[in-house]
Design goal:
Blueprint: E1 31-39, H1 47-67, E2 72-78, E3 101-109, H2 112-123, H3 125-132, H4 144-156, E4 162-171, H5 182-197, E5 200-205, H6 216-224, H7 236-244, E6 256-265, E7 268-276, E8 303-308, E9 316-322, E10 328-333, E11 336-341, H8 342-349, E12 355-363, E13 377-381, H9 389-403, E14 405-412, E15 420-427, E16 446-451, H10 475-487, H11 500-513, H12 529-535, H13 581-590, H14 598-608, H15 618-629
Parallel strand pairs: 1-2, 1-4, 4-5, 6-12
Antiparallel strand pairs: 2-3, 6-7, 7-13, 8-9, 10-11, 12-14, 13-16, 14-15, 15-16
Helix pairs in contact: 1-2, 1-7, 4-5, 5-6, 14-15
Length: 630
């Protein structure tokens, strides 16, 4: 996806506009594929660097199996002396294998046997890698262009439709060939093949002081069709963290929630997209399994229509099955049944396409800083549907920033949804400076979609019982806890906080399938309790200003009948008295029916009113008796 950057965009006041071709609509269906390529030169500096690269891939394999096992993952070793076939050797029948390359895993969906095979390989990699794969002779440099050709061929012949394909090259060598060699120029020419195939190439440096200048700066800019000056050197440690998470977070294409048109006025609109700042962690779908063999129980929904005879009997005259789309709704209008089909209902729901309409502008100070109605979204332009949307979007964004305004709009996010009032708040990409975290890659220049509250979202709380004189504290006690709060402040880091229940579920799945345990500390990674104790250590003596806490008395646990507990409470009214209707009338007159048990109330209804009631609460039984007595 081409991200929108106002600094690199064309100025609105520049000369004539160039003619742009209307790009074809992107197909967003397909699978994600990531092909790992590990440089065998990592073993020259010691096996620790090679093991670190393999551990990154191990983490990516495990997280990939838990997150989305439909995606494809493969593994190639480059610059090797030997080329042993993979476990599934028939997968390379239609692929030309170059020298100094070895395919360990063709592009496949992650399954338990594949992950177990990789874990078994890692168990003896320190002693067997040199003998099985080795290092290319004489200088450890194989043909880089042939390696890229192998990657392209594997991605094209994987047998699946791909939507997002990446090649991740883990290496510590800054140039694959000398700059004055023919192989160097042949390697650069392969960058155009990557750009034409829309395959992304990522270099994952295994050293922090990696130099991109000799080769990879020019190769990456050619493969992405960008200017050489616009290349920014990424942080090596951050790239390794992203790769181990298996999802390259800066790729917004997989995060896009939808495309819609933004109408600014009559005959004036632009094409935009929006996405979530943070994705929800999806839990695995619940299924029912058989106890004998753990096979999944498959269910099928069947709708049966029955027509009864007109003579008032319960006999069925006609019976047939229909599809879900063949159903209907029936409502009574003017003593006649009106039947509405599902097709008619869908046509009413689909009167409008997903769109946004501008209503007006307000000052930014009129919007609260925090809105707890719904998480905000991020909106950015898209030229695929309407040419010139980026320029028009930039003009609106710049004027809102300069004048400190927000746009109030009516937003219909998807089909069959209810329109919502939203505020478009202009935001700028943060200048993190020294901060190095891939979470900052999720923010950019554009509009933040803030959902405005409605009347149903506002609650009125009665604080009268809480806010009284008995619950007040003097200024000294308030200042004490202000100091405590300042001492216990922590830096909120979302990347260190995971869903505890989801972590526990994934840990159990890994323990059952792969037979190894994982560390699920949860919030323990964020909070250092020993450091917090040291911060408030000096303030603890002042805590004596508060009165000693009185521990409420504990309730005595109920004894069982075997332990000598008393028998259950008996009825307060004798059953023989309830047989007399005069006594029942006196209970009704005095409002004493609640003294009877539920069984006695059922007895009164059946004995004196000849009414049989289902099991209900006592209040409803009493109300029924009083109603019948009137």
């Amino acid at each position: 996806m081409s991200t929108w950057n106002p600094e690199n965009d064309v100025d609105l006041l520049s000369g004539s506009e160039d003619e742009e071709d209307v790009s074809m609509k992107r197909d967003y269906h397909g699978r994600e594929a990531i092909l790992f390529v590990v440089d065998a030169n990592l073993q020259t500096a010691g096996m620790e660097r090679l093991l670190e690269a393999l551990n990154i891939i191990r983490t990516a394999f495990i997280s990939g199996m838990l997150v989305n096992d439909k995606d494809l993952i493969g593994l190639i070793f480059a610059n090797t002396k030997h080329s042993p076939p993979p476990l599934e050797a028939s997968a390379l029948d239609n692929i030309v294998m170059p020298d100094n390359c070895a395919v360990f895993l063709p592009l496949r969906q992650l399954t338990k046997p594949i992950v177990e095979h990789y874990l078994e390989f890692m168990g003896g990699v320190e002693t067997q890698f040199g003998d099985v794969y080795g290092l290319a002779e004489p200088d450890g440099r194989g043909r880089f262009d042939l390696m890229i050709r192998l990657c392209i061929e594997m991605l094209e012949k994987c047998g699946k439709k791909l939507n997002n394909a990446k090649i991740a090259y883990l290496t510590d060598v800054s140039e694959p060939h000398p700059s004055n060699s023919n192989h160097f120029q042949a390697a650069l020419q392969k960058a155009s093949d990557l750009e034409g195939k829309e395959f992304e190439f990522h270099v994952i440096p295994m050293v922090d002081d990696f130099d991109y200048e000799p080769f990879y700066k020019e190769f990456i800019t050619l493969s992405r069709a960008i200017e050489l000056d616009s290349f920014q050197v990424p942080d090596a440690q951050m790239l390794r963290e992203i790769l181990s998470d298996r999802k390259l977070k800066q790729d917004f294409l997989r995060r896009c929630l939808g495309h819609f048109s933004f109408y600014l006025g009559p005959n004036l609109s632009m094409s935009v997209q929006y996405y979530n700042y943070f994705q929800r962690r999806a839990y695995p779908r619940k299924v029912q399994i058989l106890r004998r063999d753990n096979s999944v129980v498959r269910t099928k929904r069947v709708i049966t229509v029955q027509k009864q005879k007109d003579d008032g009997s319960q006999d069925i005259e006609h019976e047939y099955q229909i599809k879900v789309t063949g159903g209907w709704y029936t409502c009574n209008v003017g003593e006649k049944d009106l039947r509405i089909s599902m097709d008619q209902l869908n046509r009413v729901r689909n009167l409008h396409k997903p769109q946004m309409m501008l209503l007006g502008f307000k000052h930014r100070s009129s919007l609260p800083e925090v809105s707890y109605i719904k998480p905000a979204n991020f909106m950015y332009p898209d030229d695929q549907s309407i040419i010139g949307s980026k320029r028009l979007f930039r003009a609106l964004w710049e004027r809102c920033l300069v004048r400190d305004k927000i746009a109030i709009c009516l937003f219909m996010s998807k089909r069959k949804s209810i329109p919502r009032y939203v505020a478009l708040v202009p935001v700028e990409a943060p200048d993190n400076g020294e901060e190095k975290t891939y979470r900052s890659l999720l923010c950019g220049d554009g509009f933040k979609i803030v959902y405005l509250p409605e009347a149903k979202h506002i609650r009125h709380l009665d604080m009268q019982d809480w806010n009284n004189t008995e619950n007040t504290a003097d200024e000294q006690k308030v200042e004490f806890f202000q100091k405590i709060i300042k001492k216990l402040r922590v830096d909120y880091q979302p990347n260190l906080i995971n869903d505890p229940s989801l972590d526990a579920l994934q840990a159990n799945l890994l323990a059952l399938s792969l037979d190894f345990s994982t560390d699920t500390k949860g919030l323990d990674n964020l909070l250092d309790t020993t450091q917090q104790d040291k911060r408030i250590e000096k303030l603890l003596p002042d805590y004596e200003m508060f009165a000693a806490e009185v521990e409420p008395p504990k309730k005595r646990a109920a004894k069982s009948t075997t332990a000598g507990a008393s028998a259950p409470k008996m009825a307060k009214i004798d059953d023989n008295q309830l047989k007399e209707f005069e006594f029942v009338k006196s209970l009704i007159k005095d409002g004493a029916l609640m003294r009877c048990t539920a069984a006695q109330l059922h007895f009164i209804l059946q004995q004196h009113f000849d009414v049989t009631m289902p099991k209900l609460v006592k209040e409803k039984l009493v109300a029924k008796i009083e109603e019948l007595h009137k």
